[in-house]
Amino acid sequence: MNELNDGKPRKIENARPYSFTLEEDTTNFSRYVKGGIVTQVKLPKVLHFKPLKVALEELGEYLPSEFSKHDRSPLLHLAFQALDIFKNDFCRFPITCSEEDTQKLIDLVAGININLGEAKLEEIDDKLLRRFANGSRAILNPMAAMFGGIVGHEVVKACSGKFHLLFQLFYFDSIESLPVEPLEADDLKPLNCRYDAQISVFGSKFQKKLEDAKIFMVGSGALGCEFLKNLTLMGVYCSQNGELTLTEMM
């Protein structure tokens, strides 16, 4: 197969420790006898990102956070645009448990969807949008920590050029973490404490359980110290009744 010695890079498939398959027709090549040296070459990949203004105005490329939620990103795309309009119009985010604010957000999403024309979504999940509106004011430590890690990762990728960036839009939700049944309005009222944002989503009763929790944690190294930080910022084990037992292998 002297034809392979022309110096041109060739795509392969089915790469294994001791074999691979060429992605081209080799029927007219000379017979392979033995030996040979193959060098792996990573070719550059060009990504064409749309400007933010264009990407916001159409349903485009989404990187799914979970394959079981592949149809959720387009709706969240509209929801965040509606939230931005709501914030600009009223200089605030929707109030938790406010039916009026929630309905305004849903109406904004419906209006944006209609303007998409043929690309509009066939169905809009009002239940999801209600949860979105009720939690839009809160900044929760677990979500902030996760997105902070993703953004930091993207910066490293952009500076190194070794891996390509997320393409083009990425939305993440954790609806399954929210209470299954709606909470009472009194349970969601702020207590003028550092955990008010968390209380507005999960309720003061749940927050009390977190603060009174007794936690046993193994390790305080690279990951352990991050766990400790996140647990502390959530108020876990931070009351007089709470307790943290930490063990470290020496």
TrEMBL record:
Domain THIF-type NAD/FAD binding fold: 195-246
Residue stretches making up the Ubiquitin-activating enzyme E1 four-helix bundle domain: 44-113
Domain Ubiquitin-activating enzyme E1 FCCH, chain residue ranges per copy: 1-42
GO MF annotation, one: ubiquitin activating enzyme activity
Source organism, top-level taxon: Eukaryota
Gene3D superfamilies per the UniProt record, alphabetical: NAD(P)-binding Rossmann-like Domain (3.40.50.720), Ubiquitin-activating enzyme E1, inactive adenylation domain, subdomain 2 (3.40.50.12550)
GO cellular component, one term: cytoplasm
GO BP terms, alphabetized: DNA damage response; ubiquitin-dependent protein catabolic process
PANTHER family linked: UBIQUITIN-ACTIVATING ENZYME E1, UBIQUITIN-ACTIVATING ENZYME E1 C-TERMINAL DOMAIN-CONTAINING PROTEIN
Name of the molecule in the record: Ubiquitin-activating enzyme E1 1
Organism annotation: Platanthera zijinensis
